[in-house]
Specification:
With 367 residues, this protein is of the alpha/beta class. The chain has twelve helices and 15 strands. The strands form four sheets. Strands 2-8-7-6-5-3-4 form a seven-stranded mixed beta sheet, with helices on both faces. It has a four-stranded antiparallel beta sheet with strand order 11-12-15-14, with helices on one face. Helix 9 runs parallel beside helix 12.
């Protein structure tokens, strides 16, 4: 097989021609730094930032001044953890659906400050058990597990958290959710949401933080662009709005590709009917145990008597790209009692023929 069949969109989404063209045009014809001059080119870059921030805000039903650019979901979670006041009595709720990047920034800061991490139970379907949520000061919600691909009822979870503690701070990891479902921060009524641009077909090195109240909880990152001025006595006057959370030079080339990525996603989301079709075929193979439900956004499975890495190597030499291993999700793997797994995920660019090819090769390997 000469053609590569890419079935790992959940790890990173392939780029459309429109995204590549927008980034190329920016680099060739419009490249300059933002907020650092008054020439026309800088003004054009500043305008691009304004338009991109507004487009992201509309995409999430937020205001533009609530959108912070960062480098990705991992950095976003670390920044958010730094923005939240942590005390010895702080209780942070997590769940076994969490990606390492969603839980560990809070765990580390709790360890430093002697707070407490509480794990919310999952129900029999491996969804967050809203009826048995613990009391918490901070709640981290994985809107869609990167292993199971099941949409969580974020609004219901947040309502339940607020019933127990009206002043709870809620944080939503939407890195997997964003490509499949509409984010509505007003409906969710959350304090923070984060996701990575490369998950929707923009470039790596760009992430989004939604911050409900942009005027509270200053972070620890300090640098140029977030300061209005420093007075003679050393007093710092911080910038207003999201700029005070964006030190240094932003990933401008990546931001240039963000609007076409969002436009493309809204017109053409992944066809999850292909995942259901794959489910219906693989469930017939005795040696395969499927870990995900039919209708999930991804298909994750194990093969009896075969390590996931061995399966990955065998399909890899045949031209297939799939995700194998623990997928930065140790807790759900432990709950499922597997050492790792194989995940198939698709973009809008994948076809039925590609899925048929994967089914054929999988049957050959596990026979």
């Amino acid at each position: 097989m000469n053609k590569i069949i890419y079935l790992d969109a959940a790890a990173t989404y392939q780029k459309s021609d429109a995204v590549l063209a927008a980034m190329d045009d920016f680099l060739r014809n419009h490249y300059a730094n933002a907020g650092r001059g008054i020439c026309q080119r800088v003004a054009d870059v500043d305008d691009m930032l304004v338009r991109s921030r507004a487009r992201v805000a509309a995409f999430m039903n937020a205001r533009p001044d609530q959108i912070i650019f960062t480098s990705g979901t991992t950095m976003a979670m670390n920044q958010i953890a730094d923005m939240i006041p942590m005390r010895a009595t702080t209780r942070v709720m997590v769940s076994d659906l969490d990606h390492h990047s969603a839980r560990l920034p809070f765990v580390q800061r709790i360890c430093d400050k002697a707070g407490q991490v509480v794990v919310c139970p999952l129900d029999e379907n491996n969804d967050i058990d809203v009826n048995n949520m613990p009391y918490a000061d901070v709640v981290v919600i994985t809107a869609m597990s990167n292993v199971l691909g099941q949409e969580q009822d974020v609004a219901k979870i947040i309502r339940a958290a607020k019933d127990k503690n009206p002043s709870v701070i809620t944080i939503v990891d939407a890195a997997q959710f964003v490509v499949h479902k509409k984010i509505d921060v007003r409906e969710w009524d959350c304090d923070y949401v984060c996701w990575s641009a490369h998950k929707i077909g923009a470039d790596t090195g760009l992430g989004i933080i939604y911050k409900k109240d942009i005027n509270v909880n200053f972070g620890n990152l300090i640098g140029g662009g977030m300061v209005k001025r420093v007075n003679a006595d050393g007093q710092i006057v911080w910038a207003d709005g999201p700029e005070r959370f964006e030190p240094g030079t932003l990933p401008l080339t990546q931001i240039a590709g963000l609007i076409p990525a969002i436009d493309n996603l809204e017109k053409n989301r992944p066809n999850l009917g292909l995942i259901e079709y794959l489910y219906d075929e693989l469930v017939k193979i005795n040696k395969i145990k499927i870990l995900t439900r039919r209708g999930a956004a991804v298909l994750t499975f194990v093969v009896d008597g075969m390590h996931p890495l061995d399966f990955g190597a065998l399909v890899g030499v045949r031209g297939f790209c799939v995700r194998v291993g623990i997928m930065c999700a140790s807790w759900i793997m432990q709950r499922l009692n597997v050492p790792g797994a194989i995940r198939v995920s698709i973009g809008a660019y994948n076809s039925r023929d590609e899925i048929d090819c994967f089914i054929k090769v999988t049957k050959e390997i596990v026979k």
